[in-house]
Amino acid sequence: MNSSNSYKYQTDILGEDYQQLTLNFADDYDGKVVATLVRKKAVQATKKAVLYIHGFCDYFFQTEMAEQFNQHGYDFYALDLRKYGRSKLPHQKFYYLLDLREYDAEISKALEIIGQENHNQVLLAGHSTGGLITTLYAAHYPDHRLIKALWTNSPFYDFYKSVIEKKVGIPLLSEVGKHLPNAKFPSGLNQWYTPSLHKAFYGEWT
User: Fold this and answer.
1) Is the pLDDT of residue 3 over 80?
2) Is the dihedral of CA 10, 33, 145, 121 positive or negative?
3) 11-61: pLDDT as tens digits
4) Is residue 123 scored above 50 in pLDDT?
5) Residue 66 shares a structural domain with residue 131
6) Average pLDDT of the residues in 110-124
7) Domain limits at 17?
8) Which residues of 26-49 are buried (b: 16+ CB within 10 A; e: fewer)?
9) Rg (CA), the chain
């Protein structure tokens, strides 16, 4: 079994208690692909770990969450998925992929590393679209030897749209997207969403 020293972690942007590891994968339709595994170890040695997957337009930065899991006896790991946050490369379009199962590669690799770092049980956790992605992963791999529980926070299981928008608008946009993948449409994201989160404006997060 490999020890944690087998992997060349670097100090993460969140500080010395956080380390990051770049995961490399085969090129896709945009070229080179990487994901980033971030970890924060608990003070006491433990065989329990959390693997957290962020939501859309997002990445891992919630240090309070990592610290809470540490205090409850879990080593904390988080993935910045391909084309998000730390993993976005200059040639890539943010968040762009063709099938959610593409994320299985980095989740599987992260779980492999977590297992090699002397853990035997993992809580798979996800927020928003990360909740959908982790739920799909758990469904695809129901007998995974490490995954013992699934925890989702505000999982994105459905569109909060009218019946007409669901029946007509979303299928129409999906069809247009197949032929014009770079076309831009209004996201519907409230303009105050980011200012409400960031300390530089009105929020609590850096």
Assistant:
1) no
2) positive
3) 999 999 999 999 999 999 999 999 999 999 999 999 999 999 999 989 999
4) yes
5) yes
6) 98
7) 4-157
8) eebeeeebbbbbbbbbbeeebebb
9) 18
Type of residue found at 189: L
Mean pLDDT for the chain overall: 92
Tell me which residue of 15, 3, 73 sits closest to 43, measured CA to CA: 73
For 93, the token pair is 């379009």
- CB contact set of 191 (below 8 Å; sequence gap of 6+): none
Residues 15 and 96 in one domain: yes
Point out the domain boundary residue: 157, 175, 195: 157
Tokens representing 190? 């409230």
AA letter at 46: T
User: Cα dist. 86→41, 78, 116 in Å?
Assistant: 20, 11, 23
Contact 95, 56 (CB under 8 A): yes
pTM equals 0.90
Q: Which two tokens stand for residue 129?
A: 């679209």
For residue 54, what pLDDT is reported? Answer: 97
Residue 37 phi, psi dihedral angles, 5° rounding:
-100, 125
Question: What are the structure tokens assigned to 51, written together?
Answer: 């693997």
Rounded Cα gap, residues 131 and 100, in angstroms: 12
Instruction: Give the whole-angstrom CA distance, residue 102 versus residue 142.
Output: 18
Name beta bridge partners: 53: 79, 126
> How many other CB atoms sit within 10 Å of the CB of residue 127?
23
User: Which of 83, 73, 20 minimizes the C-alpha distance to 50?
Assistant: 73
